[in-house]
From TrEMBL:
InterPro entries, per database record: C2_domain_sf, ComplSys_Reg/VirEntry_Med, Sushi/SCR/CCP_sf, Sushi_SCR_CCP_dom
GO MF annotations in UniProt: complement component C3b binding; identical protein binding
Protein's GO biological process: blood coagulation; complement activation; cytolysis by host of symbiont cells
Predominant location category: secreted
Disulfide bonds: C172-C215
Location relative to the cell: Secreted
Protein's recorded name: Complement factor H-related 1
A GO cellular-component term linked to this record: protein-containing complex
Higher taxonomy: Eukaryota, Metazoa, Chordata, Craniata, Vertebrata
Signal peptide: 1-41
SUPFAM superfamilies referenced in this protein's UniProt entry, alphabetically: C2 domain (Calcium/lipid-binding domain, CaLB), Complement control module/SCR domain
Assigned keywords, A-Z: Disulfide bond, Glycoprotein, Repeat, Secreted, Signal, Sushi
Positions of the Sushi domain: 108-165, 170-228
Pfam family, one: Sushi
Length: 292
């Protein structure tokens, strides 16, 4: 005789039981019951929430059990300089049929300072991502691109809250400094748009990149870099039992990119697996061969 689970609805069919129909009807009844339970909201699941600039409370504990069952409540907070729409530190969200409710999000917080050469009613206040602030510039000044508003976005203010004079727009300050090099002319405190300066490196350093940079839209183009030279001291040669093939021993300088050839000292042989005798100076580094 078929044994019914405790609490399950019973079907009375003693005459059909020998034919197996009662078992079949029972299975159909169980499937219908499961379907109606799902229709009432059971069986709902949500993917574990991934919140940009946000952290889920006890994330390492709950994430392995993803997806999260319906009705489960989780809490999240936002990173520094970001806040939830409610501005609470810990924010509850619940898994529903429509997904997480309320939708978890972290919005950027933008502090609005006082306006240089202008003013705004928002001076000294904080705003959230999406807020638009009106700025009034003093006579003869304007925001970048002649705008009158700035917007708080995910990366901060859309443009600096600073009113500038049209006469100074596009100018650049002193050109950027570089290691082991400098410009070939005297540095000025201010440069007109489309001005150019030229760089040079110190002795034995190799210039990489464009040696001339230009001021455009108030910014300098990328400056070059000066690659380190390779210094080959006598004690390094002694340590590896090698000598220079084409030069006399001593303190040698080679520019980055130059090839240098070595050979074993008399009475020595190249160590198996040693780097080749011909090596290249790469920004101050040489892969030395070794002899034994």
């Amino acid at each position: 005789m078929t044994k019914f689970p405790e609490g399950a609805p019973r079907l009375e069919c003693p005459r059909l039981q020998k034919m197996g129909f009662c078992r079949l009807l029972f299975l159909v009844n169980v499937l219908l019951t499961s379907w109606f339970s799902s229709a009432k909201g059971e069986g709902i699941h949500c993917d574990f929430p991934k919140i940009r600039h946000g952290i889920v409370y006890d994330e390492k504990k709950y994430e392995p059990f993803s997806p999260v069952p319906g009705g489960k409540i989780l809490y999240y907070s936002c990173e520094y300089n970001f806040a939830s729409p409610s501005s609470s530190f810990w924010n509850p969200i619940i898994c529903t049929e429509a997904g997480w409710s309320p939708v978890p999000k972290c919005l950027r917080i933008c502090f609005f300072p006082s306006v240089e050469n202008g003013h705004s009613t928002s001076s000294g206040q904080t705003h959230k991502e999406g807020d638009i602030v009106q700025i009034v510039c003093n006579q003869g000044y304007s925001l970048q691109n002649n705008q009158s508003t700035i917007t708080c976005g995910e990366e901060g203010w859309s443009i600096p809250p600073k009113c500038i004079s049209p006469n100074s727009a596009g100018k650049c300050g002193p050109p950027p400094s570089i290691d082991n090099g400098d410009i070939t002319s005297l540095s000025l405190p201010e440069y007109a748009p489309l001005s150019s300066v030229e760089y040079q490196c110190q002795n034995y350093f190799l210039l990489k990149g464009n040696k001339i940079i230009t001021c455009r839209n108030g910014k300098w183009s990328d400056p070059p870099t000066c690659l380190h030279a390779c210094v080959i001291p006598e004690d390094i040669l002694e340590k590896h039992n090698i000598v220079l093939r084409w030069r006399e021993n001593g303190r040698i300088y080679s520019q980055s990119g130059e090839n240098i050839e070595f050979m074993c000292k008399p009475g020595y042989r190249k160590l198996r697996g040693s780097p080749p005798f011909r090596s290249k100076c790469i920004d101050g580094h040489i892969n030395y061969p070794t002899c034994l």
